[in-house]
Design goal:
- Helices cover about 20% and strands about 25% of the residues.
- The protein has about 260 residues and is an alpha+beta fold.
């Protein structure tokens, strides 16, 4: 609904007006320097926000916003034989966005890496009659509870068409990545593709520079070991490891652990 409150700093839509944003008050995020501020879909439309849709890789279409909102991430429309899966989420949402995504085949399912990217996920779910897959360990962070949200448990979940969710657990306990069997990993900032796009990194908090625990990084590396992938799609435009992705993740984890543990 166009008048529901959206936190300006993280871009997450809430079910009802409130004074604070728990997602931003958590130590992994922050309240804006000007204090807690709110907007809405109606206000975003009135101030000229619009959808940006652009190819981001083979069988991958980016869906973002101009001007960017909140953390500035873009979502990805992941092509698959049985229908598109929308990976991650943006805040801005309007009829023009729906029209352009329908022209690309619509959305059969939505999956989101972690709470900072929940955006306007329920609006998307209703428009496309699509379930939203969230790991159960992040249940408490869902700001707008809805029947469309499916909480799953365990380490992996098959979505069909060679698509698999993996609970890597970096950044948030329920932090998840999406693997596509043709050799792509969609990581948001669970595995952060850094400016030197041969590498990724791992953080408990990116804005507050709190490193992730070594045991958590090791667990993620173990869970991803069975999967082969050349490309790693991060959470922002062009943040993509384009070759040798699985090896890039392994050597990035090894480097991270070497520095974190001061093992020489």
């Amino acid at each position: 609904m166009n008048d529901l409150p959206i936190c300006v700093t993280c871009g997450v839509q809430y079910a009802a007006p409130r004074e604070n944003c728990p997602i931003c008050e958590d130590e992994r995020q922050y309240v804006g320097w000007e204090g807690q501020r709110w907007t809405s879909l109606a206000e975003l439309a009135a101030t000229g926000h619009r959808a940006v849709v652009s190819e981001e890789g083979p069988g991958v279409v980016g869906v973002g916003t101009d001007p960017a909102t909140a953390i500035g991430q873009r979502a990805l429309l992941v092509r698959a034989g049985g229908g598109n899966v929308l990976w991650d989420m943006v805040t801005h949402f309007d009829e023009e966005t729906v029209r352009r995504v329908r022209e690309l085949g619509g959305v059969r399912a939505i999956a989101i890496s972690h709470p900072h990217f929940y955006g306007s996920m329920v609006e998307w779910a209703h428009a496309f009659e699509a379930p939203v897959y969230i790991h159960a360990k992040d249940r408490a962070w869902v700001a707008r509870p809805d029947e469309s949200v499916v909480f799953w448990e365990g380490e992996t979940l098959e979505l069909g068409d060679g698509l698999t969710l993996v609970n890597a657990g970096v950044h948030f306990e329920g932090g998840q990545v999406l693997h596509r069997s043709d050799g792509a990993l969609f990581s948001g900032d669970i595995l952060q593709v850094v400016p030197d796009r041969r590498w990724v990194s791992f953080m408990y908090s990116y804005p507050n520079l709190i490193p992730e625990r070594p045991g958590t990084v090791r667990r993620a590396l173990s869970l991803l070991a069975p999967y082969d992938f050349d490309r790693v799609y991060g959470g922002w435009w062009k943040r993509v490891v384009r070759t040798d992705g699985a090896a890039a993740v392994r050597r990035s984890a090894e480097r991270y652990l070497r520095f974190a543990l001061d093992e020489g």
